[in-house]
Amino acid sequence: MSMYRRLWPDMISAVRVDADSAYQRRGIDRIVLLNNGRQLWIDEKKRARDYGDFLCEVGSARSWDKSGPGAGHRIGWTLDPSKECDFIAYAVMPNSVCHLIPFELLRQAAVEFVEKWKAADLRYPRLARSSSWVTANVAVPWDVLWRDMRAVSRRHFVNRLELPKPVQDGEQLTFYYK
Asked: Is the pTM of this model over 0.85?
């Protein structure tokens, strides 16, 4: 909680969401309430060791091998458009470091670059097992992740920026898109 307080000094509370709930299914582990009325939804991930990379979950299933997923295959959380969190708090425990990653930007980068990431990761798929699921992951070096997130956050205009004709209401100009 002290990490969140350092990020948002005007924070009122940081509520942990542990129970199986609609919040959890939407990728929300913590709700940060700010003094200005905003709510930030955080998905918290932990790495027990520092491998110098971000572990991108590309899928999960009841079984998985080198040939691919078995029964019950689902898209991994990194690529899942139904997740609604604002940020991923990605903690690397031995270093006491937490990367705060804007989720939608991360997801867009993963969608665009996941095939390149897989090709570059000689150990893909990196399988992790729980009691009922197997996840397939690709390791993405931090510098590659940040570079690719910057690439998807930047778009070029064709020739020039064309805005619709503004509607004036007093001193205010408003642009309406059809």
From this structure: no
